[in-house]
Automatic annotation (TrEMBL):
It comes from Fibrella rubiginis. The lineage of its organism: Bacteria, Pseudomonadati, Bacteroidota, Cytophagia, Cytophagales. It catalyses: (2R,3S)-3-isopropylmalate + NAD(+) = 4-methyl-2-oxopentanoate + CO2 + NADH. This is 3-isopropylmalate dehydrogenase. Residues 4-352 form the Isopropylmalate dehydrogenase-like domain. Homodimer. The gene is leuB. GO terms for molecular function: 3-isopropylmalate dehydrogenase activity; magnesium ion binding; NAD binding.
Amino acid sequence: MQKHILIVPGDGIGAEVTAVGKQVLEAIAAKFNHQFTYDEALIGHVAIEATGSALPNETLTKMRAADAVLFGAVGHPKYDNDPSAKVRPEQGLLQMRKELGLYANLRPIKLFDELLEASSIKPEILRGADILFFRELTGDVYFGEKKRSEDRNMASDLMVYQRYEIERIAVKAYEAARTRRGKLCSVDKANVLESSRLWREVVQEVALRYPDVETEHQFVDAAAMLLIKDPKKFDVVVTGNLFGDILTDEASQIAGSMGMLASASVGDSTGVYEPIHGSAHDITGKGVANPLASVLSVALLLDISFGLKAESEAVIAAVDAVLKAGYRTRDIANANTPADKLLGTYQMGEQVLRHL
Ligand code: NAD
Ligand code: IPM
Ligand code: MN
């Protein structure tokens, strides 16, 4: 199979982890006899420094032309503590999602058995947890009108959803639920927010088309609690942009670490595959970031954008084998991890390649 992949490392550890992701793509191409070609493009802080824009036109053009995008992360501490900055790295990411119509963000929360001890949650609560989040990605308070009063003392962000936006993400989530354990939980705040009342109304309508799927509605505050109390009760979760952002960082603790969580952003055009974590400047340049979220994003890319199931499963099996062999990066290690099994980013990548 011939495919063109655009690598967009972005900022901070984005460059470190996508370098490993690319090596895995190369290894898969060699093993399964595919012809993958690659190009790179800038986004985020590095793009602002080079061009003045967080998403240069050249990057967007390359994204549209690619068969898939492997994305790292954006963000820089310089902006995190400067609310007045007008041009910000995160704008690049949000504009990319909007421009490419990436309305569905799939975030699988899959606990590898070997990492039962890596989480701060009790093993008996965790064992067998397997959740697939559908986070709506191009609407909500992220993209509603933003205002600041003239005297600068009042600010607002409009939380807004349109029927079609809710319907299309709900349909995707229901279709997935059908192929899994047949359960869907929709998360909103319909007891308070009008946009959530529309959300619930639309999901209830879509539910009628999927009588074979068991539907449940939860308020976001209760859902946050239930995720930790009893993660096994969830199969597919569908929710809005903001709630999905927050709940999936929380749910990363079910999988052991932020460094384990991959995601797929899909919709109208090229799919983008990225870890859910950010640029992690606290560990940038130290060579200790866990690259497995990027590696697992490659597995999603192969499966969803290219339909290469065996290749995707080979990547997941390699990650499983590496963890079974006891190798850990710092974020998933514990006091019992022997020194010779504690690996940096690059070495962890090498182990994945060896097990492929
Ligand atoms: P973060 O995800 O970057 O880091 C949170 C914590 O998790 C940090 O302690 C970090 O060291 C750790 N961590 C994250 N990824 C890891 C990995 N692969 N291996 C080991 N440890 C890992 O979130 P933050 O600190 O809140 O944000 C930092 C910057 O990243 C901000 O500028 C933010 O806007 C941006 N951000 C970007 C994205 C994205 O590009 N998709 C996502 C989240 C945050
Ligand atoms: C994510 C990030 C982004 C989001 C930020 C960096 C804009 O947290 O991809 O989860 O909130 O969507
Ligand atoms: Mn996030």
